[in-house]
């Protein structure tokens, strides 16, 4: 399983501590140095272009295409609408059709994030993505999955909701495409999946939690897993120049990598 490190804007070099790169479209549009960072990456770097839905900052389709044409990421997440399966599928179909019309289908993969207001709704949306050939990766939302599976909101029940969904998909032989876990609650979530042969489908996860926890002196290697909600101004904060915090950041990222490899 691969990890994406997501730091504040003034500490972008920490992205190199991850295995892949997660680009937030809203930040790409707003900040020149953010654009410069991503455009300086080697051609071999895997870049996921996110639409902002998980940050409650969804960009428009036009903005996503503007960023795609400029950056040419490895994959893109079409605009998914929280808890709305029908509109999420409609958006994905229209988005992919436009990608093909603009000659982008051969160079950029589609990453589809299922949504739904309940389990049945979410599963129907997931099933559509699973059986749509041009969808290459499926996303497990830190907001939509907990809401559909355990009725949790406000970043609660992330681990419990996604484990419940994973177990259902596993038992019903629906783990046939790579999964990416958007955001993180408890870092111990990923060790759970490792016990199953289907773990190979758990491709990756992105989160600022490894860094944000360290900024709050929470060291996972010491068995500290309390989750402090990520503040809305997280990207505008700056990591203190503190050797202890720098050490915990490295420790937290290594904890994730070692726990599933």
What does this structure look like?
- The mean pLDDT is 96.
- The N and C termini lie close together (7 Å).
- This protein has helices at 25-30, 32-39, 61-71, 85-101, 119-130, 144-150, 158-171, 189-193, 209-215, 243-259; strands at 2-5, 21-24, 47-50, 75-76, 109-112, 135-140, 179-182, 202-207.
- It contains ten helices and eight strands.
- By secondary structure, the chain is an alpha/beta fold.
- Helix 6 (144-150) packs across helix 7 (158-171).
- It is globular.
- It has an eight-stranded parallel sheet with strand order 1-8-7-6-5-4-3-2.
- It is 40% helix and 13% strand.
- The longest helix has 17 residues, at 85-101.
- The protein has one domain (2-259): Alpha-Beta Barrel (TIM Barrel), CATH 3.20.20.
Question: Helix and strand layout, with pairings?
Answer:
Blueprint: E1 2-5, E2 21-24, H1 25-30, H2 32-39, E3 47-50, H3 61-71, E4 75-76, H4 85-101, E5 109-112, H5 119-130, E6 135-140, H6 144-150, H7 158-171, E7 179-182, H8 189-193, E8 202-207, H9 209-215, H10 243-259
Parallel strand pairs: 1-8, 2-3, 3-4, 4-5, 5-6, 6-7, 7-8
Helix pairs in contact: 4-5, 5-6, 6-7, 9-10
Brief account:
This protein has 261 residues and is of the alpha/beta class.
CATH architecture: Alpha-Beta Barrel
**Largest sheet data:** 8 strands, parallel
Q: Low-confidence parts lasting 5 or more residues at pLDDT below 50?
A: none
CATH superfamily: Queuine tRNA-ribosyltransferase-like
Helix content: 25-40%
Distinctive features:
TIM Barrel; single chain; eight-stranded parallel beta sheet
